[in-house]
């Protein structure tokens, strides 16, 4: 090979290499910033159940996200108040093939207790369909729940069955706790039966030092820069209350993954708080 051609090829290779290095650095920086941003947007909010005093407030707890399956808490209140749900085990609805659930645990008869414990979305949709659009919208406004937007996906007219599933309805951790405070103090303008039964069917979890947590998880996904869902970067909610002896606290734990994960965010958010809460309360 002639020296001039050789030098030209070397120069081209150096240019390509430098370009690849720069591109790799830009991509690494973008991913690092995205991870830091996700971590910065996570929130932990714990307030005293009696006084409302803030015990812990970490992160931007005023930023709204889709409630996902945490919406089963207000939906239970609606269902009981409207008479659709009766008690812990009535109604018991059979799974139908048209529900098209990929989860084997959903493909059986479900009652209100199992609906909450294993988080069955087709049961939620059956409740909202029986409520109807007008009643559903009325309850959401009455509860002052999040941004109160139950329109659903743009142009799809699916708000009655999809609005709380990574769609139009958004709620912040601050608003989650405010709703739970109203539920526990019976300030939602619904029947006492609706408040009592909702509290009764929510799953319970034991923690160290005598604490018992009760609440609901919710799992979703973060968006990529192009607007599509990143199914490796999860959003995880755990909202509810915790009690020990005569003390009660209300909490909202919101986890936004700062790196790729395989497990759903809701259960991981729950386990994080179950582990952390006893020490937080000792230090408070």
- How far apart the termini lie comes to 76 Å
Share in helix: 40-55%
With helices defined by DSSP (H or I, 4 residues minimum), what is the helix count?
9
Largest sheet: 6 strands, antiparallel
What is the number of strand segments?
A: 6
Structural class: alpha+beta
Proportion of strand residues:
15-25%
Provide the gyration radius in Å: 23 Å
What global shape is seen?
A: globular
Describe what you observe in this structure:
- The chain has a six-stranded antiparallel beta sheet with strand order 2-1-6-5-4-3, with helices on both faces.
- The protein has 284 residues and is of the alpha+beta class.
- Residues 19-36 have low confidence and may be disordered.
- It is globular and about 50 Å long.
- Helices cover 43% and strands 18% of the residues.
Short structural description:
It contains nine helices and six strands; from the N terminus they run H-E-E-H-H-H-H-H-H-H-E-E-E-E-H. By secondary structure, it is an alpha+beta fold.
SSE diagram, text form:
Layout: H1 3-40, E1 43-48, E2 54-58, H2 72-81, H3 112-118, H4 121-131, H5 133-142, H6 159-162, H7 173-184, H8 192-201, E3 204-206, E4 212-223, E5 229-244, E6 247-256, H9 265-283
Antiparallel strand pairs: 1-2, 1-6, 3-4, 4-5, 5-6
Helix pairs in contact: 2-4, 2-8
Keywords, please?
alpha+beta, 284 residues, single chain, 43% helix, 6-stranded antiparallel β-sheet
